[in-house]
Write a structure and sequence with these properties.
Layout lengths: L10 E2 H7 L5 E5 L10 H10 L4 E7 L10 H15 L5 E9 L11 H6 L2 E5 L16 H15 L7 E2 L4 H6 L5 H13 L3 E4 L7 H10 L3 E4 L11 H11 L1
Parallel strand pairs: 2-3, 3-4, 4-5, 5-6, 6-7, 7-8
Antiparallel strand pairs: 1-8
The chain binds zinc ion (2 copies).
One zinc ion (ZN) binds next to loops.
């Protein structure tokens, strides 16, 4: 995709491991425009209080998740106004977390979103073609296969900058997603210059995931998957604690 995101804000997994210095960045934050608790303003305040240096708002794009059909314009306006106001305190990007809608890397974004978003996280929240079927009702093999195909599509997508929480949907709703397949997705994403999210909620133990990303020379984005107040900057605290020990 046309890049409005400075790739200097991607960090290689091996640098993260070897420098033992964690960037104060959080690239996965939701607000009360969808299922988060904090307003855009409250996220700014919390992030500044936590001494974060760079954050990306990554609101969900599925229309059913938002409270107003016009939410996106307000979201952009709020971020643009506040990042100007706080420009000496924190660097902020307008991002989105977009669900995969095909097995070849298409994601759910309106034209306006493509135009305004500076960073797009691709995610497999549902699998293409499921219709009304629930992921919990799939067989283990089917869920693994669909998660894999969806994420391999994202790993070759020209519409996203990074892949969110690899394996999360399958692991949360059906069965643990196999490590070997996670590695194949990381490999494919790296080949295509797509970063891989380091997510403290779903990648446990986090150090194993980070080591695998380093073995595959992956570029990463640290993302807390924050939906509340206390979890803004969680990824920084988690990485600091594992890299210290
Ligand atoms: Zn997600
Ligand atoms: Zn999310």
């Amino acid at each position: 995709m046309q890049t409005k995101f400075d790739t200097a804000y991607l960090i290689s997994a091996s640098d993260l491991l070897s420098y033992k210095k964690v960037p104060k960045w959080d690239f996965h934050i939701h607000t009360n425009h969808t299922d988060g608790k904090a307003s855009v303003l409250q996220v700014f305040e919390k992030a500044i209080e936590a001494e974060l240096e760079v954050i990306i708002f990554t609101e969900h794009t599925e229309p059913w998740r938002s409270k107003s059909p016009h939410w996106f314009q307000s979201y952009v306006d709020e971020i643009v106004n506040l990042r100007e106001k706080y420009r000496n305190k924190i660097k902020v990007f307008i991002g989105l977390e977009a669900n995969a809608v095909s097995f070849d890397g298409q994601v759910e974004l309106t034209d306006q979103m493509v135009e305004r978003a500076e960073f797009v996280l691709g995610a497999a929240h549902r699998y293409p073609g499921l219709d009304t079927r629930k992921i919990a009702e799939l067989s283990k093999n089917e869920a693994i296969d669909l998660e894999y195909k969806t994420l391999m599509g994202l790993a070759a997508s020209t519409n996203i900058h990074a892949i969110a929480h690899i394996g999360a949907t399958c692991s949360k709703y059906c069965t643990p997603f196999p490590t070997q397949l996670t590695r194949e997705i990381v490999k494919e994403a790296t080949k295509n210059n797509i970063a891989v999210e380091i997510n403290p909620v779903y990648h446990k133990p986090l150090i194993h995931f980070l080591e695998m990303c380093a073995e595959e020379n992956a570029m990463t984005t640290p993302g807390s998957n924050a939906h509340g107040f206390g979890d803004i900057g969680l990824i920084v605290r988690e990485l600091e604690s594992i890299l210290k020990s």
